[in-house]
Amino acid sequence: MGSIRLRRKPDTWELRIYLGRDENGKVIHKYATFTGGKREAERELARLSFELEAQPKPEIENGLKWNTRTTFNDAISAWRENGWQDLSPKTVRDYESIVRVHIQDSIGKSAIATTGVFELESYFRSLADNGLGLSGIRHVRAILHKSARLAGKWSGGVIPNPVSLADLPKTAPKAPVRAPRVDEVRIILEKLEERDDIRLSCLIRVLAATGMRRGEAVALRWSDISLEDRLIEVNKAAVTAKGALIVKSPKTQASVRTIAIDANTAQKLEILKETQASFAREVGFTLSEEAFAFSYYPDGSTPPHPDTVSHHFKAAAEACGITDIHIHSLRHFQATAIDSLVSERQKQARLGWSTSHMA
């Protein structure tokens, strides 16, 4: 069992192979570095795994104790060491945030075996009373349920799973995400241009003009943008994992697509590229086609952080008196704008949806 992860350097992969646990219950991995394409890296991982499987295995006593005193935090920690590596970086980041904010200092300290259904349902209701929406409570319950189920499996059935019987409270549904009007998008773009930050204003314009996801937009390189043909190729997305920003292939094949842009957006991008090239020359660099288009680094080596982009967009919108939209609303704006112009199938292709149900 193993996994691969793209390192910061292009075509450089970290190979990780699961070896078992030491006497303290800590997961043991073997690490290797491989340079080449993803398919070759997967083959190298398979080869190393086969070689290690063929070697005689040392006798390792499992010192991790699973009993009626095992807490939710204990089970989540074990799952983190033996399972989270199979999740996407974004999912891991979301799980870490949920555990840190909602679980580890409260229900996480409770022993799974002695936690009753009434206690769990009271805990879920307290989350709702403190403003957490039903979707967020479902995520909390899912983490608790999976960790308790794994604890039951790893303990040989000693630890029960009380979460499976606990119901969620009924909460008022959240208002649906609103698509901004054309005039609202226009004044937000004007507000951003007043800040004299051409990178940010151009990035937000691209989001509004294409319906791209923010992670897809910040991961754009100049080699992905054809100003002459007015086309943008979407083939990567930027996500955060353990505090680091990485650029990876999108989750689904449908997200890989080519999008046409209007002449004004292409013109703004051309001005940005000239600005980026001039900035690079001033400090002794040459702007490469592989540079990130919206980078604040002179060599274009690092994309802007998606959360930073969201923060600045929200601030600009609120400065315009618009407080009920966020950066993902621009995706809804694009979907609404092209609704009467293209078919549902064309809309699906442009926005990178896996199915047409989203339309």
Give the topology string: H per helix, E per strand. EEEHHHHHHHHEEEEEHHHH
Strand content: 5-15%
State the shape: globular
Distance between the termini: 39 Å
How is the largest sheet built, in terms of strand order?
1-2-3
Count the DSSP helices. Answer: 12
Q: Are there runs of 5+ residues with pLDDT below 50, and where? A: 57-63
List the helices and strands and how they pair.
Layout: E1 2-6, E2 12-21, E3 27-35, H1 38-54, H2 72-81, H3 89-103, H4 117-129, H5 134-154, H6 182-194, H7 198-210, H8 214-218, E4 225-226, E5 231-234, E6 237-241, E7 244-248, E8 257-260, H9 263-282, H10 306-319, H11 329-337, H12 344-351
Antiparallel strand pairs: 1-2, 2-3, 4-5, 5-8, 6-7
Helix pairs in contact: 2-5, 3-5, 6-7, 6-10, 7-9, 7-11
Explain what this protein looks like in three dimensions:
A hairpin with a 5-residue loop joins strand 2 and strand 3 (27-35). The chain is α+β, with helices and mostly antiparallel strands and 359 residues long. The protein has helices at 38-54, 72-81, 89-103, 117-129, 134-154, 182-194, 198-210, 214-218, 263-282, 306-319, 329-337, 344-351; strands at residues 2-6, 12-21, 27-35, 225-226, 231-234, 237-241, 244-248, 257-260.
